[in-house]
Each structure stands twice: as C-alpha cells, then as structure tokens.
Amino acid sequence: MADDVCSLAELTRGAVSAAMRAALPAELAEADPLIRRSEHADYQANAAMSLAKKAGRKPRDLADAIAGALREDPAAGLAVEVSGPGFLNLSVTDRAVWRQVAARLADDRLGVGTPQLGRRTVVEYSSPNIAKEMHVGHLRTTIIGDALARLLEYLGAEVLRQNHLGDWGTQFGMLIQFIDEHPDAKWRAQDLAEGDAGTVSALDGLYRQARAKFDADPEFADRARRRVVTLQSGDEATLAVWRELVRESEKAFQVIYDYLGVSLNAQHSAGESTYNRYLDEVAAEVEASGVGQISDGALCVFFDGVTGADGNPVPLIVRKSDGGYGYATTDLAAIRYRIRDLKMNRLIYVVGAPQALHFRMVFDTARRLGWLTDDVEAVHIAFGNVLGPDGKPFKTRAGGTVRLVELLDEAVARARAEIETKPHTLEPQELDVVARQAGIGAVKYADLATSRTKDYSFDPDRMVSFNGNTGVYLQYAHTRIRSILRKLPEDARTELDVDAPLHPAERGLILLNDQFAGTLTEVADTLEPHRLCGYLFSLAKAFTEFYEACPVLTAETEQLRANRVELCRLTGATLAEGLRLLGIETPDRM
Ligand code: ARG
C-alpha cells in the first residue's frame, strides 16, 4: 500500500487534536477530541463539553479557543463553528473532500489498511456431515463463514479455513455394513447415470435405506454395531469403504461450494476423524488435571449453573462409560490442536445457535485446562434459522429437510426470470452466467444482510428484486456505474480538479465512500457482516441521489465531468470490493 490514506474523520480528528494542543493547557490537550458525524455539519467535536468540568471553565470558552486555533491552521482543511453550549461543528473544505477521492483511487486497496495483522485466525464453517446431503441448515454457516474468512484475510489476518466435516461416528458402522450386504447399492459417482441428482443424493438414499433397516431389523443393528468397533479398531477393509464414503461425499460438497462460489476446498477439510489420534491423550489430561470427574462410569466436566430441565447438572462427557469418545471430546482435541499446534490466536466457530451450550462448555473446559488463555479469543458465531417463505420452519411439502441445491437452483431461476423482464442485451451464454451470479448473490446477500441472530424467510421473489435492500439492487447499481464509464469518450479528460465546485450530493457520496475502511474494521471486530451490507446499501442509494442531481457524461464543463467520472470510478470500486468481500460477484452488465 502507498501512504496510508486517512479517512476524513481521521484527518478531522488529527486537526482538532493539533488545535487542542495549540490552544489548551497541557493537562487537557491530549484528550480525545470526540469526533462524531453531525446533522448540522460533516462532523462535530464534543471535547469542549466533556473537558469543561475538569478545566473549571465554561465549555463555550474551551470551544472558542479550539475553534480559534483551527481557523489559524490553514492545513486543517476545516470550516468551524461553535454551536449551542460548546459543540464544534466541523465542515471539511471542498478541496479536502475532492482530494479524498483522488487519494483513495490512487491506492489499490482504496485506503483499507491491515488492522488484523498478527491475528492468526481459524474460521470454522460449513461442516456438513458425510454421507448426507447439504440442506438448508448448512446455508448460513457456509455463507457467513466464507464472508468472515474473506474479510479478515483482506484486513491482514492469517486465516485458516476449517471444514469440520462430520466424518466419524456410529452411523458409519451401519452404512458400511449395509454396503457390504448390498453390493448392488448405487452410491458412487461412477454408478450414476448422467443427469442424476448427484452422489450425495445417492448417499442420502443409502443412508435412509440403511437407517430403515437398522430400525427394523435388530440383527442387522447388531452387525452394524459390531462394525463400528471394527472400524474404530482400524480394520483395513472397513477403513477402505469409509474412505471411499468420505471421498464421494466431499466431491459432492465441492460441487455445491463451487456453485455457491465459496472459497472452501479439500485443503480446508479437517473432519472429526482428524482428531481421533489425540482423544486418549485429551481424556487422560482432563482426568489427571482434576478438571473432569468420573460420574456413573463416565468422565465428565461439570459447570456452575449448567443444569437440565430436571435440575440435574448437565456435564460435558469426555469419555463414555463404555470407554468411547464422542462429539465433545473431538471438539476438545480440535481446540487444543488449533491453539497448541497451529498456534492460532483467534478461533471463530460459525455454527447454529442450538450448539451454544456445547461451545460454552468446550471453551470453559479448555480455559480450565489452561489451553485457552487470555491471548486467545474463542467465539461461537451463532445465527438464526432460515424459515420457509411462510415464516414457518422450512420443510418440504412432505415434511422433509430442504436440499440446499434446490434452493439455489430456484433462486437462480427466479433471478433469470427477473432479468428477462427487463430490456437487456445479454447473449444467452452471458445470461446463464449473470443469472447465476445474481441468484447466488441474492441468496448470500439476503442471508448476510439480516443481523446474524435473527431468523429470516427464504423468499426468492423478494431476494432477486431489483428494488430494495437486495444483492441484485447492489449489483445493478454497480452495472450502472460500469455502463457510464464505458460510454466515456476515450479522449475525455480524467484528472480530478480539487478546486472544482462541490454539490451536496457529491459531498454526501464522497463522505460515504470515505467510511469504507472504518466499516470493514467494525465488521472484523464485531464479526457482524450485516453492517457491511447496510453500508453498501447506503452507498448505492447515495449514488442514485448523486446521479439524479449531477449529470456525469453531460456535465456542464469538462472539468466537472472529470471529477464526477472519478467519483463514479471510486464508488464502483468500493461497491465491487465490498461485495467481493461478502462473496458476491459483480457482473459488468445485467
Ligand atoms: N457437523 C456438525 C453439524 O452438522 C457441525 C459441526 C460444528 N463444529 C464443531 N466444531 N462442532 O451439526
């Protein structure tokens, strides 16, 4: 990055700080100037109000003193007014505002720094279960996790994406036994005819058949249970089938990730089985440390205030009474591995809200064991449910779980229909691509724009609308900017003139562009992507206001046109970059 591009808010803070040092006694001069956005000017500084008591002076006196110093500093670039009991209203000069457009455009990161440098961050997300199809329940973790990973990485964090696949457990005994007893069962990709619904659907079918047999036939259930033991003891023939199940499933997940444009691949797979080799050691440590206790033959960790409906304590079970390990032990091994071996200092688990208690117990146990220290942050990023279009829990008509691929297909089809209602010049092949970008973008945006903890309805008609707070609206705003820039004559003047007059709509748009880096920092700190969505929506609306008030290609003078073109360029770049960080593509035309 070139020189750091400070935002106008930062420049304003700097100027007011300098004025405070020039005008106030030493004990007040270093205080925070308290810069906020203002309704009456660009910013206001509230420092005089907060310092008055300590100084034993009227806030108005202090404000006058700071204002005086600001007026004497030509480099401040601020018009200043004292208002009310002692607020400083600050307006950035037109020059400084225009200069900001040039400064951001000159930086290929648009003034975004790397505040996450030094953070070694695990983002664990998606984590579907092997031999089952991805369903609506995996949508949010996959979308939110991917957006967070992209954004943190861009801000300088070293990000390790982890897909904690459910690839171990008693169900594999059942599946492998069933496959053995039904050699004709069709579940491998090579068994499927072209156009078949895909391996994971086939695997899903296998799962259902095996389950039905398990429930109906006690002798099969016994054989399946023995097969689990064979698998766990490392029997090579059994492991070979297990590996094939995992591989076939992963292939099918990858198809969905590619369709979704999610940056997960095989390199990020670290399924539950990855941690098998550590489970004995982890349990031994839990027991020896005294953090765990034997209760009814099982090794358990208990927590203050964690009780079930019957009032009895709910433990984290580290080793079952039969000596077996489960989901919780795996998570303990995983957190230890991530901290101790991978040396990560921020652990982000993007997993549905129902697992909140599980993660509380895992994190608390890891803390008591001394693995999780104050230098490491572990957070469960929970999220609300995806509801059906009627606002009720999302089920198929038959009451089953909704397949993810069907939802995506539906959104893409609706996006295509929506695009086709408008006059467009897309070639058929381009239309295919743009419909996918719009449909997938719409799904992602609808998910990310809802504050994480809330539920939302999966309503494709609303999602793909060109109006309102939708992904398609933002993509469309971006294409409008691209189209303006395409129409610019090649020999047009492009240097921005900082002495050009500045329209209020231009000022509004530039000030919003200026908040981009700050918004990203906020999302990285709060892990709330909806803030970026809200920001981009405001930016697109401000662009519309600007475009209505300020003709670009037909501006009154060549100089004004050049300035406005640069402002279009900046806004287009900010929109595209913001959407890219959310995992949303930006077609050039739609
Ligand atoms: N496979 C689990 C599921 O589908 C999610 C795994 C969550 N991650 C974890 N570390 N426990 O519910």
From TrEMBL:
Subunit-structure text: Monomer.
Lineage start: Bacteria, Bacillati, Actinomycetota, Actinomycetes, Pseudonocardiales
Q: Please indicate the residue ranges that the annotation assigns to the motif 'HIGH' region.
A: 128-138
- Keyword annotations: Aminoacyl-tRNA synthetase, ATP-binding, Cytoplasm, Ligase, Nucleotide-binding, Protein biosynthesis
Could you tell me where this protein is found in the cell?
Answer: Cytoplasm
Chief localisation class: cytoplasm
- Identify the residues that the record assigns to the DALR anticodon binding domain, covering every copy: 474-590
- This enzyme's EC code(s): 6.1.1.19
Tree of life domain: Bacteria
Put simply, this protein is called: Arginine--tRNA ligase
Give start and end of each Arginyl tRNA synthetase N-terminal domain. 10-92
- Can you state which reaction this protein catalyses? tRNA(Arg) + L-arginine + ATP = L-arginyl-tRNA(Arg) + AMP + diphosphate
Q: Its family?
A: Belongs to the class-I aminoacyl-tRNA synthetase family.
Which GO terms label this protein's molecular function in UniProt?
Answer: ligase activity
| Xref: Pfam families | Arg_tRNA_synt_N, DALR_1, tRNA-synt_1d
UniProt xrefs under SUPFAM superfamilies? Anticodon-binding domain of a subclass of class I aminoacyl-tRNA synthetases (SSF47323), Arginyl-tRNA synthetase (ArgRS), N-terminal 'additional' domain (SSF55190), Nucleotidylyl transferase (SSF52374)
